[in-house]
Write a structure and sequence with these properties.
By secondary structure, this protein is of the alpha+beta class. It has 2 domains: 90 residues, Nuclear Transport Factor 2, Chain: A (Roll); 188 residues, Glutaredoxin. A hairpin with a 2-residue loop joins strand 2 and strand 3. Pfam families: Thioredoxin_4.
């Protein structure tokens, strides 16, 4: 379930590790410049409406190569401009590009989650941050892998946090659901998780047989208010929040996700290691075990059977917000 991304973000991933010289670039001959443009358009799938300009040669730290700056721009859109540095051999017959990866940060700290509802041990050394869409069937599959089975297996060794990434283009009620869930979270984490548990097991019920969006939104609001009452939340604050449908916080999360290059749900980070799509239990646990070992923590032994068991921290599938079936 992919989100459309601008070419700008595609090109940013191709930035190269070369140093720019202080001297003025030496212009390329027209044939070499044309070769570079054609190759760049072909290899990078540059849309025809984008213009490409080729800079001159500059010295580089790579023996036998010079640096050449290639700039991609969309006429009339100054914010859609990106420059990449390529390596051009001294004889002009080879063009190369290298990827530069920033390893200055701790991977576990690259995906922010402060202030989000949390399940598990707040002091755990391994954190699972999941970008979730409450209408996404693949997200529902991953949710079933996480709760209660994975959380129970690792007990106090992990913590799980959800970030919002509603894919509005294909999931019309996902944004509304995320707002309602966050209205609950603003007062207490527990009703937030109960609400999320329910939506991930009753997506078809929310959509309804007639796929009426207004009915879906009304049902989402009703469920949120009922869950708030069961959890003894402030009813006035909750009702006002649900009615306001303030998208500000969710929009900020979407923008942050795009900045991290996230384009589909679910996207799960385990101490910074990224996985996309629904994962089977074996794969998920292998990744978590690897993160635990890197933190000096011994993973729990894998049980002979992995039949999910009910947990107080994660209501059984099918439990309705408000505590009824």
């Amino acid at each position: 379930m992919h989100r459309n991304r601008l070419l700008l973000f595609c090109l940013m991933a191709l930035s190269v590790a070369v140093c720019r010289a202080q001297s003025s670039p030496a212009p390329l001959d027209s044939l070499t410049a044309r070769k570079i443009e054609v190759l760049a358009r072909t290899k990078l799938n540059v849309p025809t409406e984008y213009q490409i300009s080729i800079g001159g040669r500059e010295s580089s730290t790579m023996p036998g190569y010079d640096t050449v700056k290639v700039t991609f721009s969309l006429p009339g859109h100054p914010d859609h401009t990106q420059s990449l540095n390529f390596l051009l051999s001294k004889d002009g017959n080879t063009l190369a590009r290298l990827s530069e990866w920033d390893i200055s940060k701790n991977p576990a700290e690259m995906v922010p989650y402060a202030g989000r509802p949390l399940r598990g041990n707040p002091d755990a050394k391994v954190v699972l941050v999941n970008y979730d869409d409450l209408e996404c069937p693949y997200c529902a599959r991953l949710h079933a892998e996480l709760f209660p089975e994975t959380l129970d297996h690792y007990k106090g060794l992990i913590k799980i946090v959800y970030r919002d990434l509603p894919l509005e283009e294909i999931h019309p009620w996902a944004l509304h659901a995320a707002i309602d869930a966050n209205c609950l979270a603003a007062q207490n984490d527990k009703p937030y998780w109960t609400y999320v548990d329910y939506l991930h097991t009753h997506g078809e019920d929310i959509t309804g047989p007639d796929r009426n969006l207004d009915k879906s939104k009304a049902l989402l609001d009703k469920l949120a208010i009922e869950e708030g009452a069961t959890a003894h939340l402030d009813p006035v604050k909750l009702s006002a929040c649900v009615k306001a449908q303030d998208e500000t916080a969710i929009r900020a999360e979407i923008k942050q996700a795009e900045g991290l290059g996230i384009e589909q749900t679910p996207t799960l980070f385990v101490n910074g290691e990224e996985m996309q799509g629904a994962l089977d239990t074996s794969t998920l646990w292998t990744i978590i075990d690897r993160a635990l070992v890197s933190e000096g923590v011994t993973p729990p032994p894998v049980p002979k059977t992995t039949t999910p068991a009910a947990s107080p921290s994660a209501p059984a599938a099918g439990a309705k917000p408000g505590g009824t079936r």
